[in-house]
Automatic annotation (TrEMBL):
GO terms for biological process: defense response; protein ubiquitination. This is U-box domain-containing protein. CDD domains: RING-Ubox_PUB (cd16664). Transmembrane segments: none annotated. The gene is PUB26. SUPFAM superfamilies: ARM repeat, RING/U-box. Coiled coil: none annotated. The keyword Phosphoprotein does not apply.
Length: 414
C-alpha cells in the first residue's frame, strides 16, 4: 500500500493513516482492536459479523472483540476535514458511542423497580429512548434484555393516572417490533385496548401518534380474526385514528402512522362501516396528495377496501374529487397504487352511473388503454379490462371506445 497520499476526484489527497485498512475510505468512527490496529467501526464490525476472528491487517487472532474509540485520531481527521473544506470536504460529525450492556441493564432495572422514585424511573426511560434513537445496534442491545415485557407492564400498570411514566413507556415500546404472543397479550385484554383508544385523544400529538402506532402493531401482529375484530370495534377507535390523519403536515409522522393504523383496522371487513361513519372517505381523499409513495399505496388500498362496503362506496362517490383523483393516480405512483386505484374505480363505477360519467370526463379511457398495454400487474390489467367493458356504453361517440377496432371481451374474473 502507498505510504503517503492518494489523489481524489476533488483534487485533495487523504492521508494514508486516515483511511480504513478495510474499506480504504476516510474513517468516520475510528476504533482500535486488541492487536492495536485501527479501523472504521462499521468496517470492522462487518468483518467480525461475517465470522472472521483475526485482525485484517496483522492476521493475528483477536483475543477479544472490544472496540476502543480512537478519539485522538478522530479529532485529527475532523481537523483535516475542516482544513480542506475549501476543496468540498465535509467535516465528519462526532459519532455517538454504542450503549454499554451494563448501562442498559442498569437503566432497565431502575425503570422497572416500583421502589424507585417516579422521577428516577422516568429519567431511566428517557435515557433508554435516547439510546434507542441513536442506532440500530443500541435498539438490538436493549431488545435483548426483555424490554418489551418490562415496557408493557409499565404502560398498563396504572392506566387511571396516565402519568408521564405511561407515556414514556409507550414512546419507547413502539420502537421495538412486537412478537405475536406480545400482540395477543395486549389484544386479548379489552381494558388495554380501551386505554390505547383513550390515548388517541390525548392533548399531546406525540402520545396520540404513539398510541396509534401500538394499535397498528397489535392488529397487524395478531392472526386471530376475532381479536382483530374486537380491537376494531372499540368505541371511537376509528375517530381517533382518522383525527390523527387530519393533523397538519408539520407532523409527518402522524400522517404515516395514521394511514398504517387505518389500513390495519380496515382489513377487518365487519367494522369498515365504522371507518366510513368516522369520516374516512373525506379524509383519505383530502390527504391523498400528501402521502409519500409507500403511504399512498396504503391509502389507495384502504380506499379500495372501503369501496367494497355499500356505505363506503356511497361516501367516496359523494366526494367530488374521488373519481378524478383516482383516475389521475393510474400509472403515476406505482404498479400497486395503480391496481388499488383501478379496483376502487371499478367498485364505484359498478355502483353508480354518475361515477361512470365522472370517470369518462376525467379521461379514464386513455388511462385504461395505457394500463392494459403496460407492464403493470395482472390483477390491475384484469380490473382495467372489466372497467373498459363496464364503461364502453359511456364513451363519447367520437371516442375510440365505440370503434369497431376496439374489443374488450376477454375479461378474467377475480
Amino acid at each position: 500500500m502507498p505510504g503517503s497520499l492518494e489523489p481524489l476526484d476533488i483534487s485533495v489527497q487523504i492521508p494514508y493513516h486516515f483511511r480504513c485498512p478495510i474499506s480504504l475510505e476516510l474513517m468516520r468512527d475510528p476504533v482500535t482492536v486488541s492487536t492495536g490496529q485501527t479501523y472504521d467501526r462499521s468496517s470492522i464490525e462487518s468483518w467480525v459479523a461475517t465470522g472472521n476472528t483475526t485482525c485484517p491487517v496483522t492476521r493475528a487472532p483477536l483475543t477479544d472483540f472490544t472496540l476502543i474509540p480512537n478519539h485522538t485520531l478522530r479529532r485529527l481527521i475532523q481537523d483535516w476535514c475542516v482544513a480542506n473544506r475549501s476543496f468540498g470536504v465535509e467535516r465528519i460529525p462526532t459519532p455517538k458511542q454504542p450503549a454499554e450492556p451494563a448501562l442498559v441493564r442498569s437503566l432497565l432495572n431502575q425503570a422497572a423497580s416500583v421502589s424507585n422514585p417516579h422521577h428516577t424511573r422516568l429519567a431511566a426511560l428517557r435515557r433508554l429512548r435516547g439510546l434507542a434513537r441513536d442506532s440500530d445496534k443500541n435498539r438490538s442491545l436493549i431488545s435483548s434484555y426483555n424490554v418489551r415485557e418490562i415496557l408493557v407492564n409499565l404502560l398498563f400498570a396504572d392506566t387511571a393516572s396516565n402519568s408521564d411514566l405511561n407515556n414514556e413507556s409507550l414512546a419507547l415500546l413502539v420502537m421495538f417490533p412486537l412478537k405475536e404472543p406480545e400482540c395477543v397479550s395486549i389484544a386479548s385484554e379489552p381494558d388495554r385496548i380501551a386505554y390505547l383508544s383513550k390515548l388517541l385523544f390525548h392533548s399531546s400529538i406525540e402520545v396520540r401518534v404513539n398510541s396509534a402506532a401500538l394499535i397498528e402493531m397489535v392488529v397487524a401482529g395478531t392472526r386471530s380474526s376475532d381479536l382483530r375484530a374486537q380491537i376494531s370495534s372499540v368505541e371511537e377507535i376509528f375517530e381517533g385514528v382518522i383525527e390523527i390523519l387530519r393533523t397538519p403536515l408539520s407532523h409527518p409522522r402522524a400522517l404515516k402512522i395514521g394511514i398504517k393504523a387505518l389500513f390495519a383496522l380496515c382489513l377487518v371487513k365487519q367494522t369498515r362501516h365504522k371507518a366510513v361513519a368516522a369520516g374516512a372517505a373525506e379524509t383519505l381523499i383530502d390527504r391523498l396528495a400528501d402521502f409519500d409513495k409507500c403511504d399512498a399505496e396504503r391509502a389507495l388500498a384502504t380506499i379500495e377496501l372501503l369501496c367494497r362496503v355499500q356505505d363506503g362506496c356511497a361516501a367516496f362517490a359523494g366526494h367530488a374529487l374521488t373519481v378524478p383523483l383516482l383516475v389521475k393516480t393510474i400509472l403515476k405512483i406505482s404498479d400497486r397504487a395503480t391496481e388499488y386505484a383501478a379496483g376502487a374505480l371499478l367498485a364505484l363505477c359498478s355502483a353508480s352511473e354518475q361515477s361512470q360519467g365522472e370517470a369518462v370526463c376525467a379521461g379514464i379511457l386513455t388511462q385504461l388503454l395505457l394500463l392494459v398495454q403496460s407492464d403493470c400487474t395482472d390483477r390491475a390489467k384484469r380490473k382495467a379490462q372489466m372497467l373498459l367493458k363496464l364503461l364502453r356504453d359511456s364513451w363519447p361517440e367520437d371516442s375510440v371506445g365505440n370503434s369497431d377496432d376496439f374489443v374488450c371481451s376477454e375479461v378474467v374474473p377475480f
